[in-house]
Amino acid sequence: DQQVKQNSPSLSVQEGRISILNCDYTNSMFDYFLWYKKYPAEGPTFLISISSIKDKNEDGRFTVFLNKSAKHLSLHIVPSQPGDSAVYFCASTFGNEKLTFGTGTRLTIIP
Amino acid sequence: DTGVSQDPRHKITKRGQNVTFRCDPISEHNRLYWYRQTLGQGPEFLTYFQNEAQLEKSRLLSDRFSAERPKGSFSTLEIQRTEQGDSAMYLCASSLNGGREPQHFGDGTRLSIL
After folding, report:
1. Would you call A9 helix, strand, or coil by DSSP?
2. What is the pLDDT of residues B6-31, one digit of tens each?
3. Which of A40, A64, A41, A42 is nearest to A51 (CA)?
């Protein structure tokens, strides 16, 4: 039962352009959503989060959008930089307890 | 560095042996989580503690697995009688209790079963 889905295993984007990573969830109880970035041989690094009472949160080059009716969230990175190349995981939780992760999207930024 | 620390980074052992991993959370964090990640998958929840109390265990955590956080600071995860299927990255995370606080992860312990 995959409650959090990232349907694109990989994405390639030109440096300087916008990267858009997508995530869908099925559990309507989820009320807090997070994006993590992972480099090889390292643990996931927290990037940005959003509560279910909001539909947008920005932090520098990163913006997360939440569409509750569609049970969909997306991460926008603009402008994309070579250091953004990594695997991105979305994660969801309710009650600020255990995280349920998607399977990840490998983002490659092309110089 | 005041992040989450895990030890060892790598563990290679023979099937049937017992292994123990350690996690030191960020010092002021009272919640500590263990996850397991296999190739091509996202991390999967195993168990979590609030201070020294173990509040939830996943059904993934068979009776060969045990976790402790005796003084509400560091935690250990032990796997007894290891099996091939236990090969994975074991990740520890910590967070502050309450509100919308993200979990912060260590770099994990990679377990390889020969």
Report:
1. coil
2. 999 999 999 999 999 999 999 989 99
3. A64
For B103, nearest residue in chain A (alpha carbons): A46
Average pLDDT over every residue of B46-53:
94
Mutation to test the B interface, candidates A33, A37, A59, A99, most B Cβ within 10 Å: A99
pLDDT digits (tens, 9 = 90+) for A6-38: 999 999 999 999 999 999 999 999 999 999 999
By C-alpha distance, which of B30, B10, B11 is closest to B107? B10
Question: Among B76, B66, B62, which Cα is nearest to B25's?
Answer: B76
B7 touching chain A per CB within 8 A: no
Q: Are B90 and B7 in contact (CB under 8 A)?
A: no
Tokens of B71: 């003084």
- B102 chain-A contacts, CB cut-off 8 A: 34, 46, 49
Q: Which sign does the torsion angle of CA B107, A111, A34, B86 carry?
A: negative
| Contact (Cβ atoms closer than 8 angstroms) between residue A109 and residue A19 | yes
Percentages helix, strand, coil for chain A, rounded to the nearest 5? Answer: 5, 55, 45
Contacts of A50 (CB under 8 A, 6+ apart): A32, A33, A34, A56, A57, A64, A66, A73
Decide if B53 touches A, using CB distance below 8 A: no
With beta carbons under 8 A apart, name residues in chain A contacting B108: 43
Query: A44-83: per-residue pLDDT in tens?
Result: 999 999 999 999 999 999 999 999 999 999 999 999 999 9
